[in-house]
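Table 4 source record.
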Amino acid sequence: MNTKPRRSLTRRHLLQGIGTIALSLSFSGIVAAECSNRGNLDARYCDDNGDLVADAPSDPSQWLDPNTLIFSYTPVEDPSVYENVFTEFMDYLEQKTGKRVKWYGADSYASQVEAMRSGRLHIAGISTGPTVFAVNLAGYVPFAIMGKDDGQFGYKLQLITHKDTDIREVSDLKGRNIAHVTPSSNSGNQAPRALFKSLGVEPDKDYEVKYSGKHDNSIMGVANKDYEAAPVASSVLDRMVDKGVVDREELRIIWESKLFPTTSYGVAYNLKPELQKKIRDAFLTFDWTGTGLETEFGKKSDRFIPITFKEHWTDIRTIQEVNGTIYSEESLNALKVKKKKKKK
């Protein structure tokens, strides 16, 4: 794996000077003019072509064509590790676009959305549930996903517990100490809220939800018996087992869902259209062979494959609609939930 040093950006550097502009979702100064259709998109965006993502600005003077492109992957326990995973791909992005590419290690889903909304993040891999928030609040346009040459992709919501508990089915969650990930997480919160209710258990009513902040935290919390159970993404659990971080034999999978789409990859809507095309082509032509991506994700995926938000995120949007999700400043702030430190 190529591990050459590359300048990275912290969240503090990215948001420096943005102030309340990046955090304010009312931001009345920029509103899409003469918009015939907007759907759930924020007022600054328009969707005249009905594909459910923000249209590129019609005025070329509003297109972004930065000399340096900022790339970010969905928040993980150790962002620096994943910077190395994507090193070869970022090199390829530089070749295809003629731009410098820098890594931004996001510490929360909200920080990714805020950074893209402010114009400081240009390319991103965003988790399943937060993808909908990024589309509606930040003008994010997803176009790819990790998959196989036969077009297969996806992960499952898995409800896990430690093998030593007496939890055997979903109904046993009542009155227990259960971890969810963050409010926006699909498998870590949105899907369980929509699906567990049909199985006789209602989160926040039958058990108290405790947000861990990340799938990694939920899985480790169950493994260490800090939580009695947790709904998590199967893809994250598989990765942690493969790395030896947790022992699958110590955990019990109580229930699992059908397949959901994994992390989406896309760009800010207002990048220059020719630049957007170059970035998309880079994703869809990158050869994973011998790269960090193959090492990290090769058991499940071997390439980036094309997707559309309108088609492939139908179930995710439905789950969020069932849960009454509102795409607002308040809901974005809720994405910032982080794991609380234990008192010694």
